[in-house]
Design goal:
single chain; 191 residues; alpha+beta; Ferric Hydroxamate Uptake Protein, Chain A, domain 1; five-stranded mixed beta sheet; two-stranded antiparallel ribbon; 3 helices; 9 strands; 23% strand; elongated
């Protein structure tokens, strides 16, 4: 009975495969293949100035200083609480540091509404709340409320953005003063 040399056949087959494999992959390039030019993607940062709400292709609510004065509002919260789609609530036990929901986006544990004052983000890093007591309402020129996702304003802006623009200095001298007292020994003096 003769035995078939399986080991020798496997060895020969392996050597042939290794010897001819580079030849198979060394094909000439197809002359019909098109080369694609390099694509350069560039971007620019937003200017330091706030984006003018009138140039945006979206519904924007603008509350002017005259609107705030006519409404009798004495805080930023009072000025914006009547705008459509805004819900303010106390998440951290401090009425002056309320959380804002715009269009129903509360995004627990981090709310999805960003607040800016003259282009600077005011949201606290922990719970994304805003200490509105740090924003004197008498310095506000206008408040722009931009509902909807606003990628140009960065993180946590799925519900929208509240952009507060303050008044600029004038050439005239002027002086104003105000005293305010509230509960929990709250006192506020502005000059």
């Amino acid at each position: 009975m003769s035995r078939f040399p399986v080991g020798r056949v496997a060895l020969c087959l392996g050597l042939v495969t290794v010897a001819f494999s580079p030849v198979v992959h060394a094909e000439e390039p197809d002359p019909e293949v098109l080369e694609v030019r390099d694509v350069v993607v560039s971007s620019t940062r937003l200017p330091g100035e706030a984006v003018d709400a009138r140039t945006l292709p979206a519904k924007v609510t603008i509350i002017t200083a005259d609107d705030i004065r006519k409404s009798g509002a004495k805080t930023v919260q009072e000025a914006i609480q009547w705008a459509t789609g805004i819900v303010m609530y106390d998440q951290v036990g401090n009425n002056f540091q309320q959380t804002i929901d715009l269009r129903g986006f509360n995004g627990q544990p981090v709310p999805q509404t960003s607040v800016f004052v003259d282009g600077m983000r005011m949201n606290e890093p922990d719970f994304n709340t805003v200490n509105f007591d740090l924003i004197p309402y008498e310095t506000i020129d206008r408040i722009e409320i931009l509902p909807g996702p606003s990628a140009i304003y960065g993180k946590n802006a799925m519900g929208g953005v509240i952009n507060i623009i303050t008044k600029r200095g004038t050439d005239r001298h002027q002086a104003t003063g105000e005293t305010m007292f509230g509960s929990f020994h709250r006192e506020r003096y502005t000059v």
